[in-house]
Amino acid sequence: MGEQPRHAIADSRVSARVQSFPESVIREMTRLCLHHGGVNLAQGFPDFPAPLELKQAAKAAIDADLNQYAITWGAPRLREAIAVAVKRTYGLEVDPGRDVTVTCGSTEAMMAAMLALIDPGDEAVILEPFYENYGPDAIVSGASPRFVPLRPPDFALPQEAMKAAFTTRTKVVVINTPNNPTGRVLRTEELRLIADLCVDYDAIAVTDEIYEHIVYEGLRHVPMATIGDMAERTVTISGISKTYSVTGWRVAWAIAPPAISDAIKRIHDFLTVGAPAPLQEAAVTALQLPARYYEGLLQLYIGKRQRLLAHLRAAGMSPVTPEGAYYILCDLSDLGLVDDVAFAKWLVGTVGVAAVPGSSFYSRRADGSHLLRFTFSKKDETLDDAGARLAALPELLGRASVPGIERRGA
Ligand SMILES: Cc1ncc(COP(=O)(O)O)c(C=O)c1O
Predict the structure, then answer these.
(1) Is the CB of residue 375 below 6 angstroms from any atom belonging to ligand 1?
(2) What is the pTM of this model?
(3) By Cβ atoms counted within 10 A, which residue in 72, 167, 232, 323 is the most buried?
(4) HSE (CB half, 13 Å, CA atoms) of 298?
(5) CATH no. for residue 26?
(6) Whether residue 210 has its Cβ less than 6 Å from ligand 1
(7) For residue 91, what are the domain limits?
(8) Number of domains into which the chain is organized
């Protein structure tokens, strides 16, 4: 098998599958941040309260003794509420009894979809940079990933590279719009190109739309399932973690045509049985919130995006303004960044701000080693605390030699 990778677990009883991917860099940064008492702009979870209505609904559900297993593929009331919300927002007809599987987070939905669709050797086209889970999702399901790079500054879909990535072995294309980490929102023409390729190669689009309600610049989220007849060959994944600021509740869903839904339900049943029953009930309340809730959420994040952009610019970080989601990528090439992991560890230890090294979003780590990702899903005070700490950065960089930074002309 050759040399063990650096992240290998030193015990030969552990499966080769597990040895082939590292632990989550994002969660590692969170641990380092706790250790150093830093400000955590690494992991994308809000540090502000969840909506009161949701908390009350969850408590009421527990008090009403909704504490046993829900139907494995989701409480009927929640599946119904998901179908109503999808119809209201995008005009899509979804049969709640047939097409919806409620899962423990979109994390489970994505893994269950891949396990339901992939046979070893099937190819998965993955747009890059990508949310770090898709790498292990591909490995665990046995897919051979084919990465298509989206390049800064606009991260537009490269048409020719996309066409070249599809082959007769392509089974799925994994899409995430609005995107983590770039914030890119795919345009209708780009989705059409992917849809045409899916039809030509009889492939399925698995789309992670968890940030569907966090879209700026007057842009609009377009679900892949609304393009032509793509609903027949799309697994749409979304959930309540980001839209309703409840990442710890672990409630999400996959919407797919009947046979694919049956396959996802089968995997889901044996993976987790079901998402937490009382929190599924509270998710019904979430999906019934009025339009002004979503307007408020967007205003909140527009303000936070501006705030963090200003702090990052002041620290000399060259942030890329995101079109959606709640992350900002910074290109630190101008500062001489060559080793994002070493620098991120130094940043959290010395400056006290945790960010995610850009390499964790790339198949070839070197492609992201000049990038860092910061989240702005935090209280204004948290963002300002991070800003105050980052203000020291230009001087620190000028004075000392810093891990991960290569000085030009030095
Ligand atoms: C693109 C993307 N998909 C999925 C998730 C995880 O979502 P969930 O909490 O529903 O598992 C995240 C969390 O950061 C994400 O950024």
Answers:
(1) no
(2) 0.95
(3) 323
(4) 17
(5) 3.90.1150.10
(6) yes
(7) 52-287
(8) 2
